[in-house]
Amino acid sequence: MARRLRHPETGEILSHHELGALWLKGPNIFEGYLHDPKKTAEALRAGWFRTGDLARFDEDGFLYIENGASGFSEFVSNQAETRPIAASTI
């Protein structure tokens, strides 16, 4: 999967270590929203999916979502269970 960070307002391509809008491209990216060409046009540009998230990558290539503008990161954090894990032996 290709990844790209762009300036949220100008669309300028940024370094992976700068904070920018996260765009993704690859065979695993969806082709569009079913029966919603307007929403598809807003999300996809030349095969690049605009996630709506502000992100950066560290030196090891790990992705950090800094501001979940699209709501996806909020959805993920709300779905995660926070409970202690009990150790067991068999």
Put the structure in a nutshell.
17% of the residues lie in helices and 33% in strands. The chain has 90 residues and is an alpha+beta fold. A hairpin with a 6-residue loop joins strand 1 (2-6) and strand 2.
Describe the structure.
By secondary structure, the chain is of the alpha+beta class. The protein has one domain (2-79): Luciferase, domain 3, CATH 2.30.38. It is built from 2 helices and 6 strands. It has helices at residues 37-43, 72-79; strands spanning 2-6, 13-14, 20-25, 44-45, 48-57, 63-67. Strands 1, 2, 3, 4, 5 and 6 form a 6-stranded antiparallel β-sheet that branches. It starts with a strand and ends in an 11-residue tail after the last helix.
